[in-house]
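Service request form, structural biology core

Requester: graduate student, group of Dr. S.
Request type: structure prediction, single chain
Budget code: on file
Notes: please return the result as structure tokens.

Sequence provided:
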Amino acid sequence: MPIGGFVISAIPDKREKIIEKLKEIPEIEVYGSDERGNIIAVIESETSEEMEKLIDEIKGWQDILSIGLSYLHFEDEVDKIEKGEIKPRNIFRKRRI
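Core staff response, request fulfilled:
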């Protein structure tokens, strides 16, 4: 289970609206924000692919400027990969030209 800490930057006067939207998502915990539009959040998901999809969704929201990763911790995802329970996608595979 990956757990990531993020700084989500929003347009400052839209910060409260964005925080309310984030709080509606069960995988996200909001820990604070500042007047410049920076929002501190933790995202916890079942797989890294789920986390990536969620981040991509948030990046597409109106009034979001950027999302920066502060830390990433994999609790049991590596164990599941080693046991063959999940198979990560290979982002480094050879591409045909």
